Amino acid sequence: MRRALVVGINDYPGARLYGCVNDATNIAQLLSSNEDESPNFEVMLMVQDQRKPVLRARLLELFSGDDEMHLFYFSGHGLVNEMGGYIVTVDCQRNDEGISMDDILTMASLSKARQKVIILDCCHAGAMGAPALMGNGTAVLGQGVVVLASSRDTETSKEVAGMGVFTNLLLKALRGGAADIVGGVTAGSIYNYVDRGLGGWQQRPMFKANIARSMNLRRVKPVLDVGELRKLRVYFPAMEDEKQLDPSYEYTAKEAVEENVKVFKALRVMQGLGLVETIGEEYMYFVAMNSGRCRLTPLGMYYWQMIKEGRI
């Protein structure tokens, strides 16, 4: 089972926000299913009663049990003081602004789920697990914990046109912008996507993890059918092999052979995805017509190994 608690707060007294509920609603909708509409997370969306005791109870409920994955997403106000970082709740008051990020991290670290993902879109989100705020100079992330934060602990997080800048990129990443060749979207690939999408003078996202293996947060349609991808080991029986081509692979040549033409089309698709590269020629057409060779790229070798190990 995969469970997600998604929280968006707009109605802060005296400091209203405008895009958080919308952001949370969109995130909840995407996380609930994969692109092929298969079930993904069982999502609890909190956009109304977000008082501190209610939210704390939901967090404790989320991080209970031994599920496959627990995910917490928060969009709202965040603050940092000499005691650390906090997500701010609607019933905030001076010296009791909300729930400590350290407490949330402890809940996640104690969870028996295989992986626990915390995604924060709030000011000072990077205070989650920040060494300078932990007292002993070390950031304590339990086994299987992943933190994806919208900004450093010293930075604010921006809203533009009624949407969080970070969550706008997060949504695009979950829709496929951060997907790998087989359609998997992980927290790490999301971070890379968001980091590239933000300019050098904008807020900087943070990624912290204590995991042995990445797990998909969502799946989208693969850019290459998995069955076709597995043929890498057919075309290249050994990782270092070079594939010999000739005019029989090019459909416009008089020597064209139907079966070879099918292989050549597949190789051209793989070349476009960065899995295969030509040797001594710029275009695959000339590799075939001049009886040249092609080989795996480093990325192709990576997927070749994944296939060999039965991970794809």
UniProtKB/TrEMBL annotation:
Pfam families in UniProt: Peptidase_C14
Gene3D superfamilies (alphabetical): 3.40.50.1460
Sample GO molecular function, one term: cysteine-type endopeptidase activity
Coiled coil: none
InterPro entries: Caspase-like_dom_sf (IPR029030), Caspase-related_regulators (IPR052039), Pept_C14_caspase (IPR011600)
Domain Peptidase C14 caspase: 2-209
Swiss-Prot/TrEMBL GO biological process terms: proteolysis
The name this protein goes by in its record: Caspase family protein
Organism: Chitinophaga silvisoli
